Amino acid sequence: MLKLLSYRVYLAIFIFFIFGPILFILGHSFMSGELSDQETWTFILDSMLWDLTKNTLSLAFLTVLFSSLIGFGQAYLISFSSLSKKWVLHLLFVMPLIFPLYIIGFVYVGSLEYSGVIPSLIRENFGFNILNFINIKSVWGVAFVFSLALSPYIYLYLKSCFGGIDKKLFLSARSLGKTPRQITRTIVLPQALPWLFSGAILVCLEVICDFGGVSVFNYETFSTAIYHAWISLFSINTAVRLSLFPTLFALILYMISQYKFRVREGKSKVQESIVLLNLKGISKKFVFLLIFFYTLVAVIFPVSQLLIWSMHAIGIELDSDYLLLIVQTLFIGSAVAFLINSIGLVFLYLQRYRFSSREKSILPITKLGYAIPGSIVAISIMAFFSIFEVSYSGYFAFFALLLAYLIKFYSVSSELMMRGMSSISKKMDWSSLSLGKSSSFTFFKIQLPILRPVLFSSFVLVLIEVFKEMPITLILRPFGVNTLATRVYELTSEGEWERASISALFLILLGAVSLYISEKVINKK
Amino acid sequence: MFKYMALILPIIFSINTLAKDVVVYTSRKEHLIKDIFKQYTKETGINVSYKTGKAAALIQSIKAEGDKSPADIFMTVDAGNLWFAGKEGLLESISSKELKQNIPFNLRDEKGRWFGLSVRARTIAYNPEKVKEGELTTYEGLADSKWKGRLCLRTSKKVYNQSLVAMLISELGAKKAKEVVKGWVKNTVEIFPNDTAVLKAVAAGQCDVGIVNTYYFGRLKKKSPELSLKLFWPNQNNSYGVHVNVSGAGVLKTSDNKKAAKKLLEWLASRNAQESFAQVNMEYPINSRYPESEITKSWGSFKPNKSFNLSSAGKLQKDAIKLMREVDYK
Question: Which terminus of chain A is more exposed, N or C, with fewer CB under 10 A?
Answer without folding.
Answer: C
